[in-house]
Structures are given as C-alpha cells and as structure tokens.
Amino acid sequence: MSAVRRSSLDLVGHFGGDDEIAMTAATAFREHAPAMLTALHEALERGDLAALADAAHSLKGAISHFPATEAYVALGELERVAAGDPSGLGPAMDRVDHEIAHFSQQILSFLATRL
Amino acid sequence: MRHVKLSLLGGFQLWIEGDSAPISIRTRKARALLAYLAINPGAPQPREMVADLLWGSRGQEQSRHSLRQMLVDLRKSLPSRASAAFDDGDELFLDADLVDVDVLRFEKLVGVGTESALIDASELYRGEFLKGLTIREEGFEEWAAIQRSRLTETAIEALSKLVAIQAEKGERELAIQVALRLLAIDPLDESAHRWLMRIYADLGRREAALKQYEECRSLLMRELGIEPDDETLSLHSRIREGRREPERVPEKRSASHRHSILVVEDDPISRSILEKYLKGERFDVTVAQDGADALEKLSESRFDIVLSDIRMPRMSGLELIQAMNDREIHTPAIFLTAITDQEFEVKSLRLGASDFIRKPIRKDILLLRVRNAMRNRN
C-alpha cells in the first residue's frame, strides 16, 4: 500500500480552462507568496500574535484561489492557534512551511511547462 | 477491486462492496475524519493536523488523546475489509486503490463533459456534501463549507451543461427534469428558469412558460429585491407576444459603457487574480491596498462598484463603508468574506453593504454578483 502525494497541478482546469488566468494566478503566487510567508515568520519571531494571525489570514485568502486545500487548512490552523493557545505555534508554523513549500514546487512545475 | 464505497454527497454513508446495508459509524467525528481523508485518498495527513482539525477547541494534548481514542474505536468497529483501506500510523490516509469515493467519481465525470458522463454525474450528486454532518469545530466546519460550496457550484455547472445539450438535441422532457434539478439546488438561477421558459414555449405550453417567468420574478424580488435581468425580460416579452426567439448571439459590450470597479484587497495575489477576472470582462479596474487607500481613490474618482475584502491593515472593510457613509459616498459595496466573518457581514449589511461573496471566489459568481449590483444601482 503506497501513500503517494499528488504532485501534478491542473491549474488551468481549476480556473475553468482559462490559461491566461491560470498564468496570472501562478505568476502572482510565485512573485508575492515568499514575502507573505516571510511576514509570518517575522511576526512569529517578534512574538506579535495579532500580526501573525493577520498575516496567516491574508495568505490563507490568497491560497483560497488555488487547489491547495492542505495549505489552506494549515494556514487556518495557524490563524486559530495565534488567536488561542500559542504553545502550538511551532508545529503549526512548521506545517504551513511544509505545505507552502510543496505547493510552491507545484506552481514552479506548472510555470516551467509554460516556458 | 475496491472494497469500500464512501458516499459523501447528500450525507455520509460507508459501504462494504457486496453488502446490502451501509456500515454504521457511531460518532460524527469519526465520519468527519473519514470524509476528510477521502477527499484526498493516498495523501498522508499528519496526526497533529487532523487532531487540531477535529478537536481544535480542546487544546493540543486533549486533541491528540481524543484522536488516539477515536482511532482505536474506529479500528474495532470497521470490518477488516474496510479497515484494510485505512492507515493510522504517524500519518493518516485512505488507500486510493481500496476506496471508491463518490465525490471523486463525480468530479471526474464532470471533467469528461459528455452527455452520458454528465448524466452519470448528476445521478451521483444526491445532495450537498456531508449534508447533516456538523461537529462544531471551526477548522473542520471551514474546510467542509469550502468543499460544499465548490461541489455545489460544480453540480450547477454540470447540470447547466447537460440541460443545454439535451435542449439542443430536442430531448425536451429530459431537459425539463434537469432544469428542475438545477432550481432545486439554486432557486435563483435565472438561466435555469429561462431554459424552462424556452422549452415549455417550444412544446406549445405557453401558459407554463409564462408561469415559470412569474415564479422567477417573485423569487428574485422576495430573496434579492431585484427584477429579472434583460435576457429574461426579453424572453418573457417574446413568449407573451408569441414571437419566435432570434438566434442567440453573445451580447457585445460597447466601449462607451465600460463600468468601473475599485478592488480593495491587501493581499497582492488576490488583487492580481480579481483584476484579471474583471478586466477580462471589460470592466475598468482600479486597485487599492486597504481601506485608507480606497478612500483616497474614492475621493478622487467615481466608481460604479467597490469590491472589498473585510480584514485589512490601516482601515478594514467595515471602517471603509462607515467612512464612505460619513462622506456621503454611496457607491455600492460588495464584500469578500471568509466563513468566519459572519459578524462582520451583519455589521456591514446594517451599514449599507450591497452584497457578499464568500471565499473561495469563483469567477462566475463574482461576475454575477457584480452585474446584479450594477443593475440594482441603475
């Protein structure tokens, strides 16, 4: 029994067959997601839980446009932990990093097929 | 051969292949867990994340303990053939080779898009995703609401394609049944009302066609406070006057009638996508990074619609609409909300917001709401 994570991303299908919108979305993610993730880490390092919750909410809103359910759930969890019991922040942030890294790789693979 | 069949559309049911009755899964959270794993079979989910999803309100240690206990109970209650499909090590997942999930088959059939595939897909869609299953945990409810919304929109899209195919082929009675199913999902779907009006008129059932229009009109007025759109009004006139429908051609928008929209969104990725959605439909789009930026732009230029996020730095959507009221800027405002923003929705409605669009945002829903808001403004 093998546990295989889906690696291919049907972004064009997700955006209703519109290649242009898929490219715009993927390019915007590649351009802006790193800075949004950095904002999360900086807020965590400062211990600014309100800013962390806001940054998680913002990135979650951005991710909601994409077929990236695991990243969306992880960001939602981080947002809730930041607003509630901070002892879970470390593992929640690790999960966000993991899921965003995985999704970013999928985006890069998609963009590479368009070059 | 798949051992386990999982039905998530229209409610939760778990079957062992060949059995005549479904297996009873005692607790709602166990059903929620299986549903969550079933949407991505084969994709491992960390235990900690699943525990937080299902018991987030109880704190870390309690949630891990509750998950462990539930997994033990689930293993005991599942027959061995079902249990074989379920892996509960450090990561949890369902074996994609052993589990048949109706949601995945439904999506695949819609993707195929032929008439027979769409008929099969429509039969699979027995009702909304996980109907009747709630567990009062914010994380899970948010995830389930997104799936529900996504799958409902997919069902509407599939049924809309099917009614068009069947009507074009002259399979009118079948098309009527599909259009009625569409209205059962979304009674405010004007295009479904129009299909029924056309088909009834083609069948010589003029009174039924006119009655369908009246039903459409009274529903729109009661629920949204709006009249039917131009296409519906035009169709009604033709049927009432006994005129034949001309060849349906896409409407051409003239450059002199471009509407302007101010998109207010702090997240640059969402801004880019929304801008692309709207510019593609020939709206003039201006973007603002937050409420304060938006207010500045509203004081410099006129816009037909404001499309705004709620939670933003410097000035939130709620503060923006309050400031617009204070300055007597009466541009209709549509807010983009997450499932957890319900209290903001109520406050914004009281301040005069025109409408809401729940995230994740679909382009067709966005355009429909924007056009409705334009029409109401006029």
Structural features, described:
The complex is a heterodimer of chains A (115) and B (378). Chain A is mostly helical and 115 residues long. Helices cover 75% and strands 0% of the residues of chain A. Chain A has helices at 11-14, 19-46, 49-63, 69-83, 89-112. Chain A is elongated and about 40 Å long. Chain A starts with 10 loop residues before the first helix and ends with a helix. Chain B has 378 residues and is α/β, with parallel strands linked by helices. In chain B, the strands form three sheets. Chain B has a five-stranded parallel sheet, with helices on both faces. In chain B, helix 14 runs parallel beside helix 15. Chain B is flat. The relative contact order of chain B is 0.07. Mean pLDDT of chain B is 85; it is low at 247-256.
What's the SSE blueprint?
The complex is a heterodimer of chains A (115) and B (378).
Chain A: H1 11-14, H2 19-46, H3 49-63, H4 69-83, H5 89-112
Chain B: E1 4-7, E2 13-16, H1 28-39, E3 45-46, H2 47-55, H3 60-77, H4 80-83, E4 86-88, E5 91-94, E6 99-101, H5 102-112, H6 115-124, H7 138-168, H8 172-185, H9 190-202, H10 206-224, H11 230-241, E7 260-264, H12 268-279, E8 284-288, H13 291-300, E9 305-309, H14 317-326, E10 333-337, H15 342-351, E11 355-358, H16 363-377
Parallel strand pairs in B: 1-6, 7-8, 7-9, 9-10, 10-11
Antiparallel strand pairs in B: 1-2, 3-5, 4-5
Helix share of residues of chain A? over 70%
Unreliable parts of chain A:
1-7
Strand content of chain B: 5-15%
The helix tally of chain A amounts to 5
Strand tally of chain B, please?
11
Poorly predicted ranges of chain B: 247-256
Q: Main beta sheet of chain A, described?
A: none
Secondary structure category of chain A: mainly alpha
Give helix % range of chain B. Answer: 55-70%
Order of helices and strands of chain B: EEHEHHHEEEHHHHHHHEHEHEHEHEH
